[in-house]
Amino acid sequence: MLKCHLSKIMGERKLKISDVARDTGINRGTITRLYNETATRVELEVIDTLCGYFEITVAELFERISERTD
Hints:
The protein is mainly α. 54% of the residues lie in helices and 9% in strands.
């Protein structure tokens, strides 16, 4: 499972979804789904754009969480 840290990153920078959508040209719905961690697919171009906008790496945006069932 992948965890998206977009909400944390945006919170630290005091940015709203509308700010990021306006500044990056990414569809507001796409950003909302990433922010709320409900996205099931994301275009590589969107990931690249977000990483460039926030000046972060993909590893800072996404984290792989193992789903262990013990």
